[in-house]
Each structure stands twice: as C-alpha cells, then as structure tokens.
Amino acid sequence: MHAHASNSAALPEFAERVESLARSLGLRYFPVEFELVPDRFMMETAVYGLPVRMRHWSFGVRYIRQLVQRNMGNSRIFEVMFPGDPCKAYLVDANSLAENVLVVAHVLGHADFSWRNGLFRRSMEMAGGKILEQAAARARRIEQALEAHGEDKVEAVLDAALALEAHIDMNRPLYRPSYDDEADAVQAHEETDAFYGRWRTLPGEKPIAAERAAKRRAVPPQPEYDLLWFIAQHGPELDGWERDIFLAVREESYYFYPVFACQIMNEGWASYWHARLLREADFLPNDLYVSAIKAHSDVVRPYAAGRSLSLSVNPYHLGFTMWERIVERDGLESARRICAEEDDFGFVRNHLDARLADELDLFVYEANANGEINVVSRDIHRIREAVLGPKFNFGSPRVAATRTESDGSLTLVHDHRSDGRGLDLSRAERVLDYVVRVWRRPVTLHTIDDRGNGRELTKRPR
Amino acid sequence: MSAPIRFSAQSPWYDLFSRGARDWLRHNQKVRQAVREQIVDLMTGGDFITQPDQRTVQVPVRLLEHARFRLADAQKQEGAGQGNAQAGDTLRQADAGQDSGGDDGEGGHDDGGIKLLLELKVDDIVDWLTEELKLPDLKPKTGATLEDEEIVREGTGKRGIRARLDRRRTVKEAVKRRAIQTNPTPFIDDDLRFHQLKQRPRMASNAVVFFVLDVSASMTTIERKLAKTFFFFVLSGLRRQYHRVEVRFVAHTTEAWEFAEREFFDVSGSGGTMASCAFELTYKLLDEHYEASQYNAYMFYASDGENATDDRAASGRWLAKLAERLNYIGYVETRPGTARFAQTDMRSIMGELSQGGARAGSQVVSEVKDIWQAIRHFFVHEAESART
C-alpha cells in the first residue's frame, strides 16, 4: 500500500483546525504527537500494546493471528493512541484523508478523557507521563539480559511474568513499600496517633506489638493479589535482572489497566467527540465530511455488516450511545464529571438504564457446551453484569499468594468463591510450570474442580 | 505549553525489521522444539504427508498457547448480546450428533482456524525417534551380515604408479636429502614416495528391502495409511544404516504384482487374499536380482491378517524359503480399532516361523502410535541379533 499523498499535505492543516475547535469546545489534554506510520507498524503496535516492547514468542502468535485476520479483511486498525505527557498517536499513512481527519478528532477525544479520568490521572501520577520511553528502555535492558544470560533463561522469566501480567493489585501504589516498611509506617502512626493512644488504655485491650510481631513473621501478612510484585520481592533465588523483568511487566500492566477498565467510556467518549467535532467543523469540504461520517458509522455500528444481531456488544457503539444520552439529558458538565469519577463498572451500573438497554436491544444469552445458544433475559441488572463480567479483576481469575514456608515453598489460592467456579486445570498447571522455574521452590495452587471439590496442584523445580 | 499537536511521518527504519515476524520465528522454533520433545505423541495424529522427495514430512501442528490462569469453561457460558431477540429465543441450535464435553485440550476453539504446517527433515525425526524410543543403533552383524572387500590407502612406499604419487612426502624426502648434500640435484628417484593400498574387509553396504502390501478389498484407506507410515519410517531407518538401499514394492490380492512406488499405495484390488503368491514373487525377485553375497535383504509385509485358509501351507513354505535368504522378515498387521488378541492366520504362520528360529517378527498396529512400537521392536531385534 502506498501512502496517501494528501495525508502529508492537507492533514496537518485540517488537524490544527479540528484541534482549535476542540479547545473551544472545552476539551483538555496534554500535547498530542501524531505520527503517520505504515500499516504494518500500526498492526504490530496494536499486537504488542506498545510501540517498543520486550520480545516474546507469544506476541508472534498474536501477530500471525492479526495478519491472517487482516488478510481476510476482518480487521482494520485506524488508530493507536498512548496517553501520557505528551500523548502519542499513530495514524496509518495509507488511510484516506477523511479517515485520518476522523482519527485525529477521535484521538483528541481520548486525550481529553485520559486528562479527566481519575484512573488515568492516578496511573500517570504514579508512573509519570513518559511511559513509552520507559517501555523502550526496559525492552533494551531485556535485550541486554538476552545477551548476558541467553534466550532460554530470559524467556523462562518472561513466560512467567507475562502469564501473570494481569495479576496486579490496582488498589496498591505502583511503587510499593516492602511489607516491613509498610508495617513500620502503620506502627509509627499508631504510636503517635491520639486515637490509638486512647485505644490502648481501654480495659481488656492487648498490646498491639505482640500481635503485630506474629503477623510480621508471615510473608505475605495478608493474601497478596499482586503476584508480579510478590514474586519480584520475595522470589527466594531471583537474580536482579529477573526481578527487573517482573517489575517491567508489572509497570506496563499498571499502564494498561485504565485503558482496559474504561474501554466503554473511553471509546464512547472519543466517538462522541469525533462525531461532534466533525459535525461542527464547517471548514471541512463536504465530500470529506461525508466520507469521514461514513467511516464513523462503520466504527460505531452495533452489528457486523448485513447482520441484525450480535453475540457481543460493541463498546464503541454502547459508549457512544450512552454519552450522547447523558449529554442530551444532563448537559456536558455532568458528562465531564462522570468522565472524571467513573470507570466502566460505575459507568454501566449507574448510567445504563432499562430504557436505553431496551432501545439498544441488549440481551443476555447463554451458550451451552453443545452449541445451543438461548436468549435468557432482558433484565437490566443481568445485562449490566453480563457486559461487565469479562472485565472483573483485569479479566482474570483472582489468585493470591497466601503463604511461604521456611523452605521457600509458595502457596497460591484461587478465590473461587468470588469467581464462581474453579480454574481451567490444564492451563493452571502450565502457568505453575512457568512460575516454578523462577520461584525455584515448590509451588502449590488451590482451586476447585468442576464438581466443586478442592483441587491442589503442586509443581516442584526440576 | 508546547504546541498542542505535532505531526511527523514515517519511521523508515521500520521497513527493515518486523518484530512480529521475529517473535513468530521464535514461536516456530519453539514448536520445533516441542515437536521434538513429543515426537511420538505428535505423530499419533498420523495425518502427516510424505513429500515427493521423501526427505521431509509436513506435520500439521497447533499454534502454541501462552498459558494464563483462566476459569474453567462453565456448563453455560453467559454473555451480553445485542439485537432483536426476546428471552426464550433460541439463537443457535445444538450441534447435531455431537454433545457436550469435548474439550479438545490446549488451544481449543480459539485457534482461529490457524494451523501451522511444519516441515521436518525425516532425518531429524528418525534421530528424535531413536532418542525417544531409545532405539539402538544398528551395528554391523558378524554372522548374518555380509562382508565386502574394500581397498583403502594405507601408508607410503617407494614403489607405485604415478597416479598414487604422494607429493608431500616426496618433497619432504627431497628436502631432507638436500640438507645434507652439497650441490644437490632437486629430485632423484629415491625421493619418490607412493601411496600404498591395502585390502580390508568391510560391511556390505548394500541392502534391498521388499515392501509387500496386501491390497485386497478388506484393506481400507486407514489400513493402508498405517502400512504406509510404517514402511516409510522403516525405510528411513534403513537408509541411514546402509549406503545404498534398493526398494521393491510388491502388492497382492490372489495374485501378486510388482509396482513402482508412486502407484504402490494407490493400488486397490478386489476379492480374496493369497499371500503366498506375493512371497513367491518376492523370492523370485530376490533370487534373480540380488546376489546373496552382496545384499542385506529385508522384507516387510503389511496385511490385515486375513488370508485364505487353503493358502496357509503355501505361505508357510515360501516364507520359510525367504527366511533362509533374508536378514529379517517383519510382519505388521494393520487392524485399526480391533482387539489385539484376536489371533489371525497370518500371525500364527509368522509365529511358527520365528519359533522355528527364523529371524522374523510380527506386530499388530491398530493406531499410528503402535507404529513406533513396531519399529522399535524391529530395530531392537536387529541390534540384539547383531550382538549375538
């Protein structure tokens, strides 16, 4: 494919005018750097999640899937945008001018969202605005580790770390104090705090110190869901460079989490703004506007072309419709407040109401193992939970490190009660295989099987 | 504040390098490694295709999956959808004739229909199998195998023909002589050195293999496939052992014919089975074309074991004659899906043969997995008889 010549000439000019229109409509953002790139760069960036990232064979599998998908015409990537200070956005140089003008408007919507949204702001406060540069630096360090330690060793660490990619604890800060430092801080607080001073004088209260000492000896002191951090900190024989890899993967997960947890809101918000900006951009030639709006309706349509039903909900469509409704009903300022305060869970539970769900023809279905698919409900509560279900806990089962023994062996417990069922045992076993290669002591995992009986998997280092 | 937006174009370096392709190659490398580690299991899939050149085979394999913790599949998977449908509507009927349960292991349904066709060198596979099945290397047999005289260069001497002049030694001799002479001539006859030849006994490196296949009506595609796979790997194994392996293909129903390899596996006949005619033909070919002193000879016979009862005596007789001339007779009985203990006529003939001291063995093959056992059985037998 060849680059559209008009992109280089006319696009920056249109983009600038769209941008000042966005400013005048109250959009706020960190500077945005746009780059026109070849289609393949775009695809690979989407596959890796970052423009420069560590290498791993699993990305190769995703890459080939994406390549096949693209060759079958099933998927086209218009835009990849990385929030930060500055934000970085990529556009495909072979796309038409109209498409790219639309993408510029869409990206400004994202930039505004990430500037407002609490999760994004917190993530940026913790990690800073230069995540892409940091990721590239980490990738380079991993390349050096490859040189120094060989592919097999580095790959073993990445196998484990990337398999646990989603197992972070977003309620804890990115840069966490150690358990000891944390306990010290709590203790210092309790010793100086007036409330605790009075508490200790209550009749029958035990001195806190003894209880705390017992707790301190246990690692972890409470179930630890941030497995990446835990292994990095407490892996009995982890080398420095191996710890670095775990922390690198963890840092990237912290960066990806807001994008994941706000997908409906964020894509909806960007779609709302690209539609509105184009509508109000009276400087756009008519034919360009028409082609851009056609691209818009391709993106936000609920079903694939020629279908009238879909077994998934297009987040662009759902978010777009919800934001339109919210702005129409409560005004832009309320919408912006929602932007700042919610993630998808709050957004869907608080703002997707029965009427809208009905208008959108949302339903809940059940797919049986024999292939039969039935519509089971159009109840709003069930619809909300079905939309949100795949998003719980970063889309992963809840697995916590609960104990380490004196010989260093580790116990992991799957919280099957909140997940509703047990783990896929064959996959769990393979994940344990990865983990045991870096933990280097026996690792045991507790979950349940499909009959609800407890299952215990143990792997020992070879 | 810096400019709110900034445009740049092209990353020219990117045309030179694709990290996706790099990691894909690494994946393929790992697949190869995994194939190597599970070669026996993988081959049980059995749908590998032999290439025309026979140096490689293609094995369809699944993409590797990088495992993550995932919840077990629920009996009923719930999801949100959109479209004109009411509670109680059935959007898709159950698959006919196929009920639940079928978790097809790793990868499963989300393979996206992508399969990797891995091309493997037959040599590598045989290497891996040798390691995996702990197959012994075939050692030259003292008794049963044949020896050739071989002529090799050994040492140097002052006599010989010009063609075997050892120039390096000759010059050395000249240099030595000149060092102690005054006014030396550059070369004299006495300096000349020639390679000398010695006769040495050597393992006969020729082998002939007869593949005999029952193509009667009862041999279906599955049975032929089993036979073909077996033959293919036996041949690959023997090819590594001998410099030159000649292969003859004989097929039979109630008559026997010789075929070219191309047609051999596609031939189909109808009617009954008279194995003796194939053994007779094999014996004749062997007798006519392969001097007993120059060839190690093997015969492998594949059949479903159903042989005409009145052919029993004749088959036994021809096999006994063959056994005198052959290094080994291997019989594979292809019985897909049949209980292994069901005794067949052919197997009892073979049983009698090997009890009578002939170098012969039979194996029942009901799935591709058994082929490796059969091959192992054969190779171990060969190695052991070499030791005795």
Summarize the structure.
The complex is a heterodimer of chains A (462) and B (388). Chain A has 462 residues and is α/β, with parallel strands linked by helices.
What is the alpha-carbon Rg of chain A in Å? 25 Å
- Shape, principal axes of CA atoms of chain A: globular
Strand count, sense and barrel status of the largest sheet of chain A are: 4 strands, mixed
CATH topology of the largest domain in chain B: Rossmann fold
Q: Tell me about the biggest sheet of chain B?
A: 6 strands, mixed
Number of helices of chain B: 10
Strand content of chain A: 5-15%
Q: What brief labels describe this structure?
A:
heterodimer, A: 462 residues, alpha/beta, 4-stranded mixed beta sheet, 3-stranded mixed beta sheet, 21 helices, 58% helix, 11% strand, globular, B: 388 residues, Rossmann fold, 3 domains, 6-stranded mixed beta sheet, 3-stranded antiparallel beta sheet, 14 strands, 35% helix, flat
